[in-house]
Amino acid sequence: MMTRAGGRLLTVTGIDRPARDIVALHLADPAGGPLPEWEPGAHIDVQLITRHLRQYSLCGSPDDRTGYRIAVLRERLSRGASAYVHSYLDVGKKVRVWEPRNHFGLRPAERYVFLAAGVGITPILPMVMRAREAGVPWRLAYSVRTLEEAAFRDELAELGEAVTLRATGTGGRLDLGGFVGDLREGTGVYCCGSPGFVEAAEKAVAGWPEGSFHAERFVPVPRDFGPSEPFVAVCARSDVRVRVDAGVGLLAALRREGVRVAGGCLKGVCGSCAVTVLDGVPQHRDSLLGPGTLDRMHACVSRAATPEIVLDV
Amino acid sequence: MPWRTGHRRLGAAETRGLLGEPDPETRLKILDHLDRNCLTFIAHSPFCCMATADASGATDCTPRGDYPGFVRALDERTLLIPDRLGNKLGDSFSNIVENPHVGLLFFVPGVVETLRVNGRAYVTDDGDLRTMLEQDDVRPELATLVEVDEAYLHCGRSLLRSRLWEDDMRDLAQEIPSPGTFWADAAATEGLDAERLDRLFDDGYQELY
Ligand code: FES
Q1: Which of A4, A52, A266 has most ligand 1 atoms within 8 Å of its beta carbon, as the pocket-test mutant?
Q2: ipTM, 2 decimals?
Q3: For chains A and B, what is the number of CB pairs under 8 angstroms?
Q4: B24-161 maps to CATH 2.30.110.10
């Protein structure tokens, strides 16, 4: 447990309940100053007074520089943060927040298909608004178990026909293949939801050109990387060499030697632990970066493909 | 004659006579469940001590600590305590199996009052409960579920007198032998030297989950 360095304290200026089990938190600078800019798909790291650190997608308007909006689901098996937010966070309390980051940015396309399930609507909502403003054709399928679980229904209702809201409890599974339709060049598909939902969406766009499908995940993509090899991390700024044994993660090994690297999800899905690679080849084991990226890596789960890797830490 | 024997032993009536009677309000503040205030205390507490006893009544008291709110209140009568990495002696567990009664004392840094919670516990490996106790990507193997019988806020005089949370009291720490010294002296085994043991402790402390 630690109080992570940096970030800034924001005040909870409002709490509302966009769905039965979801609270939306409105956060603002206590002095009223503008907040860092962001683009649809971005998320922030939020550290509660309990020191729990979590990532939440921004679901307000990027044009509003005075406040952020995030949505927190009440999880039945909360590991602490969701239960705390739902039971104890009040208007006027503070949370620590870091600069928005975006691994799920909206790229230019001729048309968009948005797929969201449950609380996965949060990063999608600003994307929908952006597409609408830009006059790019879009459609949204939003799958929830029951209608009470559907968040931001008022906002979505104003968007009219292009939104398909499906309560799977009564209406049955959403036919994602049918909704996405046949392959059309120039379509960007953006998806956020449970691992099962993302997987089903991925199947629906099988055979589409590379780069048409984009997903935000809360749970790592299951993959097998084979055995872990030991390697040495050369920390250029702190001037130490850290041996990373086969059974230890890079982030853990660095921290052990007193090299401070921020951590978040520790599962390779949030990007909090990004470090710059100066030399050597990273072996990306996270769910964000592919083998093409040589200049940075996520230290929580990724390792080195070379016996040594030089990091700007 | 050793110091520990030979003194007058007081019975209940004599002890009560010397102690005096508590104010009737004091008893009133004892709850049979966790009210909103108790729940708030526990949700912000990073540390507690847990007392357990075996079938014969012989007791142990062990420290527990983690993220604030690490002891999870599932409802106003149920607490869930994770079993994190420790010395694996499992004294509390073997006690709880024999005798379910536990006493918990919760602390919040900077707060002089402490929260006392007494109840009956059992040990479980329930998957859902362990999932709720996952921390830093590690799920504990065991959890202790406590059914609450009594809860009350203990007054802050002992923490005020001891100045437990005051920074200037930290100079006491330098007078305490290192853990390796404790271990080496207690074990008194050839080849176990305090410095080496201290390094083992330091290494061990790197791994908290
Ligand atoms: S901590 Fe989230 S990607 Fe590494």
Answers
A1: A266
A2: 0.91
A3: 39
A4: yes
